[in-house]
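The records we work with from here on pair a chain with its fold. The integers have meaning only within a learned vocabulary of local backbone shapes. A complete example follows; check for yourself that the lines match position by position.

:::
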Amino acid sequence: MNKSEITNPILQGVYGRIAVGNIGEINNGAQTTLPPPSAPQPLGENDTQWMKNANCREVPTDKFFPSDGNGINIAQEICNLCVVKENCLEFSIKNHEDYGIWGGESERSRKRIRRQLRRDSIRNNN
């Protein structure tokens, strides 16, 4: 998927491409490969059913709350293969999730995205 294929209007223009490949070392040095993603489904306003299709459901939660750069990279690799990556990022932005990796984006990155969305909203309203 590339930026032009993103259908979510909230994330268009601020969301990068999804990389495809194998997940690196995740659990105690064990090499893990996640299954290929299926097609994303349209979501309702407060729908969290997408979470059932998330790659992170198969990985310990602490992997998405890393304390170092290597941990961030591992979490982002998992997210990059996830079919609901866009939904996850949108959810985290709408719900002001301040901690952890959501939709493949770090806390700092999501703050930048929220800031850009606010700027865009102000520009569009003026």
Summary: Confidence is low (pLDDT under 50) at residues 1-6, 12-43. The first helix runs from residue 69 to 80.
